[in-house]
Structure formats: C-alpha cells, structure tokens
C-alpha cells in the first residue's frame, strides 16, 4: 500500500481525542518523573486530562458530530409501490460503502459486519426493494493484502445482502479501492457524470463522500444511514454528563473533519 496512505492513517490516529489525550499524559508523566521539566510535565498531564474530560462530555460530542449528521436528510420511509421522490426514482445504482467487517468464519455474514456496516447495508436493502431495477454496488477491499475476493468486505456485504433477500445477479462488487477517495474514483470511472447514483454511508461520513463525489462529477444522491445522534425532545440530565458515548461522538466528528481537511488540502474535494 502507498506510503502516503499509511502516513495519513498514522497522523489521523494520533490526532484523535483519546490518543492525543493519552499521548499528552504519557509525555507529562515522563517529564515529571524522569526529567527536571516538572512544570512542563504537569502542564502536559493537566492538558491531557482536561482534553479527555472535555471530549467525553456528551454536549461536546453532539456539537462535533451533529452538524455532520444533519447535513443531508435521510430518505423518508416509503412503502413498495408508493410514489418515490423524483431524485430517488431516477437512480440506476445503489452504492453501499463498507463500514468494516470481521473475518470470523463461524459467524454468518450479517453478524460479521460492524454496526455501521450493518446499518448501511440495511438501508441499501431497503432502497433496493424500492428500486427493483437498480444495481446494488457494494464496496470494500480485502482485509489482508493478497486475500482472495471471497475475503473482501464487499463480499461479506454481498453475502449479508443475499441473506436479506437480494438476488446475487443484482449486485456488483468494488474491491480494489483502499479508502473513500478511491471508491468514489472507481465509481466515477464506471458510471461517469450521467448515471444517477444513490450513495449510502453513515450520516457523519456523508459530507466527505459527497465532497469527493461532487469533485469527481458524479450525479449522486446522498442517502445517510447509521445516525449516532438521535435527539430526544424530553429533557434528560444524563445527556449532559461525560461518558464513553460522548468520547465516541467527539472522535467521529474530529475524524470526519480531518478527512475533509485532507481532501480539501489536496484539491480532491
């Protein structure tokens, strides 16, 4: 795999809230206990702890992830045979972007998928039933370099889709791209600007996909799924506390913004 690909992954990893906080605390501990830079060490320790606490607050997580998830509206609930929104009715292909899958042979394909992957696929199956003539395109590379196609994330999605009632002849797999940018480029090479495509991914991931798609000239309809932020109109005090869900939402928001920044810096979005 390209060196730049792994460099991007490494830099992103250490800029995420948990990793950044732990790095600061580790550096602070080293400075306090092993050097004479006690003040700098305490500053690093305090900064790491405050960052971890701040990013774990649920309101902070919502503030970081919510605007990304609400950028595009989901496809409304529709019955088979009901009149479809015009922009959906014209779609000739439904693209489900892989969200991760395990390579656990004893599990059926639906249980190998990550939470995000399963949510995306369910939305893809729903739209496939509303659009019986559309092709279902499933993306995702092999988990290990050189692995056969049967071990790709796309193949796992395909087996899961088949178990949910989608005929194999309706599906097409894209397995060579390493990331979202590559998957969108592969779609552009296959379909160009004239074929309407329904693109399905997690709601927070949708802005980045659409940025790539617009730059590539795709005729794309955003179809967000897997919403992590689901507002409750009733006041609940625990929605203002700090816990792992707050940290998870903060991480998702920062991860997607880093991805968008990387795309814009290189003129890819």
Automatic annotation (TrEMBL):
Query: What sections of the protein cross the membrane?
Result: 12-34, 39-57
Which keywords label this protein? Membrane, Transmembrane, Transmembrane helix
A cellular component term (GO) from this record? plasma membrane
Q: Which organism is it from?
A: Cephaloticoccus capnophilus
**A Pfam family recorded for this sequence:** DUF218
- Transmembrane helix is among the record's keywords: yes
- The molecule here is called DUF218 domain-containing protein
Q: Which GO terms describe its biological process?
A: Gram-negative-bacterium-type cell wall biogenesis; peptidoglycan metabolic process
Concerning InterPro entries, the annotation shows: Cell_Envelope_Assoc (IPR051599), DUF218 (IPR003848)
Check the record and name the CDD domains matching this protein.
YdcF-like (cd06259)
Query: Does the keyword Nucleus belong to this entry?
Result: no
Domain annotation DUF218: ranges:
93-234
